[in-house]
Amino acid sequence: MKQKIAVIGCGISGLSSALMLIREGHEVQIISKTLPPHTTSNKAAAFWSPYYAEGERVIRWAAESYEEYETLCLIGESGVSMTKLHRFRKKDFVEAEDWESAIPEGAYRALPAQQIPPGYEEGFEVEVPLIETQIFLPWLMDEFSDTGGQIIQRELKSLHELRNDYDLIIHCTGLDARTLVNDNAMIPVKGQIAMVDLHLNIPIILDESEPTYIVQRKDGMIVGGTREENVFSETTEEETLTDILERASKFIPAIKSARRITQWAGLRPYRNEVRLEKEGHIIHNYGHGGSGFTLAWGCAGEVVKLSRLS
Ligand SMILES: Cc1cc2nc3c(=O)[nH]c(=O)nc-3n(C[C@H](O)[C@H](O)[C@H](O)COP(=O)(O)OP(=O)(O)OC[C@H]3O[C@@H](n4cnc5c(N)ncnc54)[C@H](O)[C@@H]3O)c2cc1C
After folding, report:
1. Best substitution site from 226, 237, 288, 303 to test ligand 1's pocket, by max atoms within 8 Å of Cβ?
2. Total structural domains in the chain?
3. Which of 120, 101, 112 is closest to 63 using CA atoms?
4. Beta strands in 177-259 (DSSP E)
5. Which residue has the least CA distance to atom 41 on ligand 1?
6. Domain with 104 in it: what CATH number?
7. Separation of 161 CA from ligand 1 center, angstroms?
8. How far apart are CA 204 and CA 149, in angstroms?
9. Which of 26, 72, 18 lies closest to 46, judged by CA?
């Protein structure tokens, strides 16, 4: 049955949920304090990689999202492409996330010893979706609007403000759920990034132990990063950026002398378990940590399933 639905939040969680719901035939409005490019989602690297996200459903959502991105990359203007990623591990690195079971067979293979940099014990080549947020988020907004969706810029003090106006509310406010629904399990995990003026034909490079990652986008090369738990400030620090660039230049020496275009810091909305559940006429969908893009389509599909429950 057609429902009138408000999606709160216009980051990747809100946009993916809103788009899947409107394609189901519902009347959908996005209500959001800020819009792209002013969301945490715009600050993501953003490549498919289960990272800093908890819960037994995470790998399933990651697998479902991977599949959806394979379709999205066929649409030239979406800003999604399938890209090679080289993942390196030091000796004592303990893998927290299980990538292999979330991707198609053959998309994950060990690298030969001569391609593994000194100091690393193992290396893998993985085919992953790369999502250029600066292209993909506006594209999603256009898709939503073109399907009849409405985007309203408004800050809510409480989800109850909407109680009488909608059949269903999808709550996707990321870290702000901490205050909006008093969820103290939400903690920020700060990440800092520099973007340098390099355009090279290289795979994504990832060393999770630091973490260090290098991502070639159309507008420059992203060089990250940090994971700073419980840090609320969104400012970058010169000393940290220098360290990031130093680490990354061990993989790509040209980074050392490259001109820095810009830098930023964002807060990953981490929770001990992604909250995706129905509570009365509200469906919560937040707490995706460092995996908002990696999980988005699996989670949005689950939102659609929950929306069918009366
Ligand atoms: C440095 C960094 C690198 C990352 N790299 C990756 C990566 O490579 N791959 C990956 O998958 N993920 C990555 N992430 C994680 C990813 O960015 C997040 O998991 C994702 O952006 C969360 O999306 P969201 O839509 O849940 O939240 P957000 O993007 O934060 O969106 C929340 C929305 O809610 C709105 N809102 C908040 N409060 C209110 C209110 N009171 N009323 C109305 N609206 C409100 C906001 O305005 C915003 O529109 C990275 C994150 C960082 C910081």
Report:
1. 288
2. 1
3. 101
4. 187-196, 204-207, 212-217, 220-224, 228-229
5. 156
6. 3.40.50.720
7. 22
8. 34
9. 72
